[in-house]
Specification:
Length: 256
Amino acid sequence: MLLVDIQDQVALVTLNRPEAMNALSKALRASLHETLTQLDANPEVKVIVLTGAGDRAFTAGLDLKELGGDPDGLRAANATAPSENPAWAVIACKKPVIGAINGVAITGGFELALACDVLICSTRARFADTHGRVGITPGWGLSQKLSRVIGPYRAKELSLSGNFLDAQTALDWGLINRVVEPEDLIPSALKLAADMAQIDLDMLVTYKAMIDDGYELSMQDGLRLEQARSTAHNRHVTPEMVEARRAAVQTRGRGQ
């Protein structure tokens, strides 16, 4: 139910339940947590790309059929433990996670997408928050994360209606990074991942954490955090280290 392909320091992780629209069953949630934990600890992996099998769904969210037959299922799914909560499993990953959204991302699937660091979408991608229509409240971050990304007015429009948001409108609203044709989705995500993988792993992890941790603070506190971490990190950077990388940076700049 979860496929992993590692090449050139990039791991492609695929939710593989296409017959169930890649719904997040208890077993799949546990497998996703275990896999991301292993990839996070693997020094041969720098960047992770997360996608869904097939062209219908990234993931339709919680497996409602399974949930309906388990009286304790909703309580377990609402836990903050990464083994139960797939959004926290992604957020807990120190390495960059690129979401390659191949189809619909509904409710919990929307929350899983929002947990990623970058979102690249197929033209077939659509987002919907159907928590209200199902009669449950979100527990994987959607009510807080979505409004911080697209603003409270647009977030309320989506969450209080349950309506779908198409890929182009998601791009226009600043929810995602780009939209590509379906056949270009994985190549585009892997190309971006390869670009990121050219950077030292320690730098990737450090810089991602600086952005994420600072975003949770006020601007002034965020600037103080940046200054403190920059001072601690840069004291170990020598002029020779900078010079060794400068030529490569200039060469790459001329090629783009």
